[in-house]
Specification:
The structure is a single chain. The protein is an alpha+beta fold. It has helices at 46-59, 109-114, and strands spanning 6-9, 12-14, 18-20, 36-40, 64-69, 74-80, 86-89, 94-100, 103-108. It has a five-stranded mixed sheet. It has a two-stranded antiparallel ribbon with strand order 1-2. A hairpin with a 5-residue loop joins strand 6 and strand 7 (86-89).
Length: 115
Amino acid sequence: MQGIDWIVSSNTVLRPDVIVVCDGIPEKYVTSSPTLIGEILSPATAAQDQNDKRKLYEEFEVNYYFTIDPDANSLVAFERSADGEFRELGYTESLKLSLCENCEIELPVSAILQA
């Protein structure tokens, strides 16, 4: 599927690089908070992705947020904690995430970084 917009509010529309929703496939755009968002960093957008968008995703209760830095060949993953703030997730070879009730995924980090 081609990119899809997330209508955050009447004056804020975002198009993350990776977006996962658990409440059905939207026809035109996402209107509820996604479960997972990923951003691929570039020199032009890295600061915005790591700061401004991260705060927005935290504020609008995205459960998981990760950034992929192709230049550094690295991935940083965050999970929304009980207090509503992101905390960095540690991982070794893969990320194991509980996206929603009865839905768990395992993402092999090396495969993501090679893509």
